[in-house]
Structures are given as C-alpha cells and as structure tokens.
Design a protein that fits this description.
This protein is α/β, with parallel strands linked by helices. The protein has 2 domains: 97 residues, no CATH class; 244 residues, 3-Layer(aba) Sandwich (D-Maltodextrin-Binding Protein, domain 2). It is 42% helix and 15% strand. The strands form 5 sheets. The chain has a 5-stranded mixed beta sheet with strand order 2-1-3-11-4, with helices on both faces. A 5-stranded mixed beta sheet has the order 8-7-9-6-10, sandwiched between helices. The radius of gyration is 27 Å and the shape is elongated.
Length: 459
Amino acid sequence: MAMFRNPFDHRFRLSSKGCSCGQHSSEAEHAAATADGLAATSDEALRLRRSVENAVMRALFPVDEQRRNFLKVVGASTAYAAINTLFPIAAATDVLAQGAPLEKKDLKVGFIPITCATPIIMAAPMGFYAKQGLNVEVIKTAGWAVVRDKTLNKEYDAAHMLSPMPLAISLGVGSNAIPYTMPAVENINGQAITLAMKHKDKRDPKSWKGFKFAVPFDYSMHNYLLRYYLAEAGLDPDTDVQIRSVPPPEMVANLRADNIDGFLAPDPVNQRAVFDGVGFIHMLSKEIWDGHPCCAFAASKEFVTTYPNTYSALLKAIIEATAFATKTENRKQIAEAIAPANYLNQPVTVVEQVLTGTYADGLGQIKRDAKRIDFDPFPWESFAVWILTQMKRWGQIKGDVDYAGVAKQVFLATDATRLMKEAGLTPPTATTKTFSVMGKVFDPAKPEEYIASFPIKRI
C-alpha cells in the first residue's frame, strides 16, 4: 500500500491512483513485482514510522509532484533532517505505537500463593506488565475471602480469583451483589485430592465416611469437584463427611496436625504435602474432569468500564504471560521466577514438579503427566453454566437461574478472543461446548435436566 512507502524516495508517488512508483496499474501488482512491496508492510515498527512520515509529507506537499521535485533537489537525508526539526517523527511514531493512553498505570492485583496464579504472578518479574506500560504490584494475600473483600473495597484493582467467585459476587451469593467479570481463565487442571499418609490403604472413596476434608473456599472448583466425586461414590458431602474452608497456605499444617484427613487443593499444596512426607496424592483433579477451569483473572465491571484502556492492557499482559506458560519448555524458568518468598514461598523443586508434570506421588512412585496443570485463558461460557448448576445443586443459589445470560455477562469470551489473537494464540470459534465430568456428558443447553439427573443434591 502507498501509505507504507518511503515518502523520502522521489521515485515513489504517494497518489492513491496506480502504484507508488508509477510503473504498475495497482499496488497489488507493484507488491508482486518488487521485494519492497513485501518488506514495507511486514515489519510493524516500519509500518508505524512510514504511516507518520507519509502523513507529514502529504500535509507539507499536497501536490505530490512538488514533494518529488523537492527531494530531487535537496536529497532524502537533508529533507528528513529539515522536516524532523519541525515535526519530531520518531516521537510521533512512539506515541502511535503506544496506542490509546492508559487511564491508570499504577495497579494493585491480589493473588493467593498457588501455581494457579502463575500468569498473574510471573507477569510481574518477567516483564509482561511493564511491556504494556503498566506498573503492577502483585500482592500476596492470605485467603479467598480476603481477596474478595479487598477487591470489593477497591484496595485491589483486580485479582486472582477462583473461577466461581465472579459468578457468586455478581449474583450476590456470599456477598453483596456487584457486577463482576472474568475475562480470562488462569489455569486448567492443576489440583489434586491429597490424603494423610495414615490413609494410604483407603483408596476407595466409599470408605471415607466420617472423613474431614478441606477445600480453599465454598465458591471454588475444589468444593464442587470434591462434592461431585464423593456423590458419585454414594457419599452425601453434607452428611457423610465434613468439608471446611481452609486457606491453601494452611492446608499442609492442618494435615500434619491431624485436623483433617485430606483436601482437594490447588498446587503446589499437594506436592508440598508429599515433599514434607505428610500426605500422598490420591488422584489429580484432571482425572475427574480433564480440562476443567480452576482460577481466573477477575475485575469488577466498574473497573472494566471506567478504565477500558488500562483493563485491556492488563488483560493483554496476562494473556501473553499465559501464552508463554503454555509452552512446556518454559516451565522450569517460570518455576524459578515464581518460587521465591514474595510469591509462592516454595522450594523450586516443588514448583517444578507441578509445572513440568514429573512428580513424586508420595507412595514411592514417580509419575509423568505434562497436563497436570496447563494454561488456557479462554473463558468458556459453558464452564460458567456448569459451575452455576453445581451452585444450585448444593443449595448455594435458589430459584430460577438465567444460566446463559449470567455466563455471558461474567465470562467475557469476546475480550479474550481478541487479545488471544494478538498474543499469537488461537481462540475457539464458539463460546460454549459440551464436555464430560467422570464420564457423564454435560450439555450447557440443558442445565436443569443435568441437575435433576443427580440422585444426591439439595434441591
């Protein structure tokens, strides 16, 4: 295209008719005939500079023949130097490259020290936030209720949350109803059921009656997956066992103190229990539902609409970090970046075992599963519908539920699609899909039928 030609080359025309050199009937014909036609549009930095230069030259020389005659007389270098003193082309190019100005550059993002928060955490030490012009302080937080409350009170601009939390907040379940959004899933899989070593001979969940379990939060995939697993074994999660909320950093200590028999927890909690010799991994959560969401990047709808450019830059940084984390060859580097005390505060070997999928199970075996934890930011609306069915199944929400409407308002698939493409990822073409949980197919178009199909439920 003519707008990407060098306007300081007198051989080229800037006219929109014909081609830039005047020897071809169109720019397409010119591009096919010259290497310059390809090079001028393939480099983004060059394209931006050429756009600025063309705009300046067209303004100075409305008649293109005057520009060409001027360049023939003084030469390209002299012309560029003279014009640049009047209009700093490099500075203008930088402004254009930065895009829309950020409404807010200094941000606070809360996180829980678990590997599910990998993209949000690593984006700080590995420069993904800075690349977008943001100064983000990622703040380690004790528990999910604290993350929720600090975000609702606007102490945090955004947060690492459990994927059900934005749905619960939007519906006013467990807190005041405030419109919330979840534009990106942080991780898929990445959890496990871990039991105390004294239970190594009790691998059949039917024998777990009377057990005390911990999950990170009432509104968590951990809670719903554990309940699902127990109910499929014939145990009522509310009467046959005890399930209590325990912050992830406190779970191993509670297991060691014999306060609980096990937990369904995010990593690296499970691997740390193995590392400390107090527990063993009974099963990975992906064995219940392979590809399930766990944690997410979340922000209030107010933040999204008040600071749209900042929100977009923040989400883009996280999605680009996610794209980096999807590559297995980067996992050891990531483990080193997020293991220190100000982030996960874990031995690097514990974090590596989780991220690489080569790990000790606590029963003397070394297992390998590259998808033990994985990273896919797309917020499938059908994930939200499944979560809502479980919230209703266990009595957390009552009455009629607009499953599809709530899913669409909270899980922002459109935003994720746009920024995934910019990050080099390939987003799906649809926003819903069917999947199976413990062999049972879930159809997001039939949520009430799904709930009714379970013999153990609260409704």
